[in-house]
């Protein structure tokens, strides 16, 4: 045949196009199979009971379907014909594409045989590769077609709907139906089809013999050959690595096995005639048990081959060979590949280290990099394929690898080096092409064309073929580096082996030495985009969802582990810092004091208690503490998360450090809450100072993370700590603010109202009164100055405002009840207010008052709440002054400018600002706001004002009743009363100031009126004949002095006008004397 006629066949173009088309058809067939296997994605018609009879009929009669005469069976199809036609169109046309693909493959294979094409992998690599690829792709399509169980129903339903709508069946249906029947037994039919092509196929396969033998070496052979070693020959480190067949060097071993196994399975007659074919076939059967058809669809090569050859006469020896190869593969293949993986990890680690330090070596040693990527990819995919399908193997450890992460990571590193130094490769090979390749090619062409009638056939002139292969590789280094990377290291197969990938990832997290390589799994998800095919765009969203989902899961799991280590190490640091708290040195101080007191020590001394810092002394460095292990694990995980700043998965930018930041924000919030409340079921809370010390230990350790991972710990801590100042964090969970607010209100202040806790102005704290079976905590440990300061620092201004708002809510609830009591006694109180100078009338009016004790009790509770608030405000003021002195100064100056003539709204605005900084104010703006909200719509301001005045009257005339209470005894130790009635002064003053501010009345005038009423009422105690009613008269009289001290609107001169100061002096003397006598020991 002439040369021009050969060119007209365009073999190269047809092979390329048909291979691309075949891969697309194969992917679409795979998509149909997976869709029909899943009940969630399967066409709805297959799940309907009404369609069952129609589908059974179609499967039984296929392809001879009588649509018009089978209305009884096809009635449901007729009802839904439009939906069926629309839904099954893509499925049907995919099967038509398979038929057309088969026709084109038949035609091309026959043309190739007719032209006696020459196939030699080392000479015409691309031609031979495309020819073998086409055979394997075609066989894979047919195998996959037979695995679609619903193929007859899909085709038959569509054709029936087509005929019902258009009056005639689809034109392709007869041939398509015949093809489906022919391939009921696909392998038998394929063997028949490829009988005429045995010579061409076997010649192409035989050209693989030397290449397959060289690629199929054991790890020991690779090691002895020093494969991939860049330093084995120091003198030749800069010499370029060349080969007669450059493309064969990085050809996948899996591809070779697929070619050999499927090729000889289809063209099996040569196995009995050519020993080389038999040896090559047996070698391929020994290496694997499964080969890939497409994605996770595999061919069990021994089982399929044995079944096929068992039905052929005279193939007993071949069946025996298959069984022997199967036994060998099951016994030795796992160990062989495990040894290869071990060798590759060490070799590639060395290569990556050298190339990272000397990227200039990438030019001359580029072929080594692509070979390494291809070899690693082969081993990874072999393990992935066999770990999924060889579940019943005897040696399961051969199909698992806890060190897989390192190999994946090294592959990613080599790829990143190729991309990073792509310009180095391009500069090197531009010079190589121009200075060497061009001259060699020119001299060879001149030599061969200078001979008379030179035929220039490649099979006879292999030197030029070798040079052409070399030049092709060099040009790829200029233009197709990314394509070569995908060809040699595409790991998108894991998109379809999700379970295996998750197992590898789980084993990586369990192996401490592999933690730093865990980032390889999220990076691998970026390869899933290679699995997309332009002929099957409908599966792209699924692949994207799978890739992003796995990437998120991997990074979240890594972040969780890192977060657990961070919080564990923080907790250890917190335990160490807790040893330095003052409470923990009490035992040491007590022990020292005992040694000084005791003259002779006991024979058996107490065991020495470790002092803080003892953990830093090590007798043996090999003994690792828990903190050491946490630091080691954390270092590895942080190194992994910080390996790349970001990467792209299906056009989504992924930032690993942000996963750690997000996880840490959630976990840190919970950890801080656990510092305060270790046991969620217990009502007990830790002291604010202890929690603050723990928070500071956490913060100190977290700030040290900045040099380990690219994490903005400052922003993270600000966000978490700011959330703790709010009632709920960003996840709707309780914060320190909520916990402490509820605890102080429900535990401390509630017990104070019950008399179990007493306010001590001398100690500036609430103190516990020992009672059996009641007290579970020491109040002074939670309410002294240092604790209030710590509380303010933990809760911050926002948290303290939340605490204040809740305190005010409780105050208003008491005020509501007090107003009710005033309304009940309003008539009597009006008369008392106008007749308090008439003792005879007062004597008749006072007994008519009801619920006097209730009024005093509720006012005392208000006083306790306001006292606690003032102590919390003092703590806030001190913290604010230390943290923001530049703000506190201007606020204090602004507060000093307030005067009585200023607009009340401006005054309250300034006071609100001052209160937010913790400064005390004459009028509490929070109390004013809370009480103002109590005004009812149906009551006039005059009535509310009258109620406020009468409330003061009620309290004033009720004070003498306190003298009858045995608990109304002033104690100098606490500078107060054991029933907390000294809190009345703050309640009266602050509530009065707030109420009369609301009604825009003069506060001083009303307080003077209250002082007058209270003086008259208390002075009458001196004339009380019943000594029981005036038992604690001196103690109660001191309340008058407390009122003056508490208020900025009253002074001693005002008190002197209505209450003799000598009575106060005598009362102080008597109270002090009684208190001193009570402390004397009894005899």
UniProtKB/TrEMBL annotation:
Coiled coil: none
Region of interest (Disordered), residue spans: 596-619
InterPro entries referenced in this protein's UniProt entry, alphabetically: Nck-associated_protein-1
GO CC terms: SCAR complex
Pfam families on file: Nckap1
Basic and acidic residues compositional bias, start-end: 603-619
GO terms (BP aspect): cell migration; cell projection assembly; cortical actin cytoskeleton organization; neuron projection morphogenesis
PANTHER family (UniProt xref): NCK-ASSOCIATED PROTEIN 1, NCK-ASSOCIATED PROTEIN 1-LIKE
Record's protein name: NCK associated protein 1 like
Species in which this protein is naturally found: Salvator merianae (Argentine black and white tegu)
């Amino acid at each position: 045949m002439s040369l021009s006629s050969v060119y007209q066949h365009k073999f190269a173009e047809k092979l390329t196009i048909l291979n691309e088309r075949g891969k697309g058809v194969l992917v679409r067939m795979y998509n149909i199979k997976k869709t029909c296997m899943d009940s969630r994605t399967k066409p709805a018609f297959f799940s309907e009971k009404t369609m069952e009879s129609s589908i059974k009929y179609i499967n039984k009669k296929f392809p001879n379907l009588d649509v018009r005469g089978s209305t009884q069976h096809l009635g449901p199809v007729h009802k839904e014909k439009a939906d069926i036609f629309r839904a099954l169109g893509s499925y049907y046309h995919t099967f038509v594409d398979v038929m057309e693909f088969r026709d084109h493959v038949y035609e091309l294979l026959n043309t190739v045989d007719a032209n006696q094409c020459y196939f030699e992998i080392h000479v015409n690599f691309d031609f031979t590769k495309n020819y073998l690829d086409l055979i394997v792709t075609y066989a894979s399509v047919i195998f996959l077609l037979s695995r679609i169980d619903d193929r007859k129903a899909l085709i038959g339903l569509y054709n029936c709907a087509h005929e019902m709508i258009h009056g005639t069946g689809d034109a392709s249906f007869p041939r398509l139906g015949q093809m489906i029947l022919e391939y009921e037994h696909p392998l038998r039919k394929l063997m028949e089809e490829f009988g005429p092509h045995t010579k061409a196929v076997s010649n192409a396969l035989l050209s693989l013999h030397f290449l397959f033998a060289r690629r199929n070496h054991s790890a020991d052979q690779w090691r002895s050959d020093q494969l991939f070693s860049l330093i084995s020959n120091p003198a030749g480190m800069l010499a370029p690595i060349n080969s007669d067949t450059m493309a064969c060097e990085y050809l996948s071993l899996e591809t070779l096995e697929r070619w050999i196994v499927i090729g000889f399975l289809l063209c099996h007659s040569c196995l009995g005639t050519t020993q080389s074919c038999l040896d090559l076939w047996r070698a391929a059967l020994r290496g694997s048990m499964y080969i890939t058809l497409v994605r996770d669809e595999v061919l069990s090569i021994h089982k399929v081959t044995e079944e096929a050859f068992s039905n052929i006469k005279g193939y007993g020896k071949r069946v025996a060979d298959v069984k022997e190869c199967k036994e060998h593969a099951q016994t030795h293949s796992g160990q062989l590949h495990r040894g290869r993986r071990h060798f590759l990890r060490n070799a590639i680690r060395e290569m990556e280290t050298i190339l990272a330090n000397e990227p200039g070596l990438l030019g001359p040693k580029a072929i080594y990099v692509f070979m390494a990527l291809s070899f690693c990819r082969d081993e990874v995919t072999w393990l992935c394929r066999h770990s999924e399908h060889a579940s019943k193997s005897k040696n399961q450890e051969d199909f698992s690898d806890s060190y897989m992460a390192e190999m994946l990571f090294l592959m990613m590193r080599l790829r990143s080096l190729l991309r990073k130094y792509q310009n180095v490769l391009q500069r090197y090979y531009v010079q190589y092409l121009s200075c060497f390749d061009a001259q060699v090619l020119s001299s060879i062409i001149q030599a061969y064309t200078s001979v008379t009638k030179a035929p220039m056939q490649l099979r006879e002139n292999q030197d030029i073929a070798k040079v052409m292969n070399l030049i092709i590789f060099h040009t790829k280094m200029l233009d197709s580096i990314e394509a070569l990377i995908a060809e040699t290291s595409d790991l998108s197969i894991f998109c379809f082996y999700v379970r295996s990938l998750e197992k590898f990832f789980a084993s990586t997290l369990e192996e401490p030495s592999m933690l730093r390589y865990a980032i390889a799994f999220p990076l691998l998800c970026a390869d899933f985009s290679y699995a997309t095919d332009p002929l099957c765009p409908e599966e792209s969203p699924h692949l994207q969802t799978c890739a992003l989902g796995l990437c998120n899961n991997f990074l979240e799991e890594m972040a969780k582990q890192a977060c657990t280590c961070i919080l564990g190490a923080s907790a250890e640091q917190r335990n160490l810092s807790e040893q330095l708290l003052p409470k923990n040195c009490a035992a040491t101080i007590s022990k020292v004091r005992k040694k000084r007191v005791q003259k002779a020590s006991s024979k058996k001394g107490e065991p020495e208690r470790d002092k803080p810092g003892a953990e830093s002394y090590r007798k043996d460095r090999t003994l690792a503490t828990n903190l050491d292990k946490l630091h080691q694990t954390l270092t590895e995980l942080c190194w992994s998360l910080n390996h790349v700043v970001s990467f792209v998965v299906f056009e989504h930018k992924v930032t690993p450090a942000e996963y750690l930041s997000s996880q840490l924000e959630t976990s840190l919030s919970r950890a801080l809450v656990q510092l305060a409340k270790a046991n969620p079921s217990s009502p007990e809370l830790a002291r604010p100072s202890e929690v603050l010390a723990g928070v500071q230990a956490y913060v100190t350790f977290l700030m040290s993370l900045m040099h380990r991972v690219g994490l903005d710990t400052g922003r993270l801590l600000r966000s978490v700590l700011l959330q703790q100042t709010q009632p709920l964090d960003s996840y709707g969970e309780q914060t320190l603010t909520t916990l402490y607010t509820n605890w102080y209100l429900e535990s401390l202040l509630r017990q104070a109202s019950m008399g179990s806790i007493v306010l001590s102005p001398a100690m500036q704290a609430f103190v516990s009164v020992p009672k059996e079976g009641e007290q579970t905590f020491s109040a002074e440990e939670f309410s002294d100055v240092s604790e209030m300061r710590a509380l303010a620092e933990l809760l911050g201004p926002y948290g303290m405002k939340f605490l204040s708002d809740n305190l005010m809510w409780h105050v208003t609830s008491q005020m509501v009840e007090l107003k009710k009591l005033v309304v009940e006694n309003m008539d009597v109180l009006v008369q008392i207010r106008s007749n308090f100078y008439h003792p005879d009338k007062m004597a008749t009016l006072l007994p008519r008052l009801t619920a006097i004790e209730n009024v005093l009790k509720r006012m005392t509770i208000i006083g306790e709440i306001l006292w606690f608030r003032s102590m919390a405000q003092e703590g806030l003021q001190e913290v604010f002054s230390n943290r923001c002195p530049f703000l506190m100064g201007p606020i204090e100056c602004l507060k000093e400018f307030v005067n009585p003539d200023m607009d009340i709204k401006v005054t309250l605005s300034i006071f609100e600002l001052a209160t937010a900084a913790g400064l005390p104010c004459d009028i509490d703006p929070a109390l004013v706001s809370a009480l103002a909200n109590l005004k009812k719509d149906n009551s006039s301001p005059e009535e509310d004002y009258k109620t406020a005045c009468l409330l003061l009257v009620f309290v004033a005339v009720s004070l003498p009743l306190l003298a009858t209470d045995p608990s109304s005894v002033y104690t100098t130790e606490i500078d107060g009363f054991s029933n907390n009635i000294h809190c009345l002064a703050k309640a009266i003053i602050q509530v009065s100031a707030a109420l009369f501010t609301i009604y825009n009345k003069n506060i001083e005038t009303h307080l003077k009126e209250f002082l007058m009423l209270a003086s008259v009422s208390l002075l009458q105690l001196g004339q009380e004949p019943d000594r029981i009613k005036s038992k604690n008269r001196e103690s109660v009289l001191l309340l008058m002095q407390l009122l003056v001290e508490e208020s900025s609107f009253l002074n001693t001169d005002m008190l002197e006008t209505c209450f003799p100061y000598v009575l106060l002096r005598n009362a102080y003397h008597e109270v002090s004397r009684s208190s001193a006598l009570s402390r004397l020991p009894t005899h």
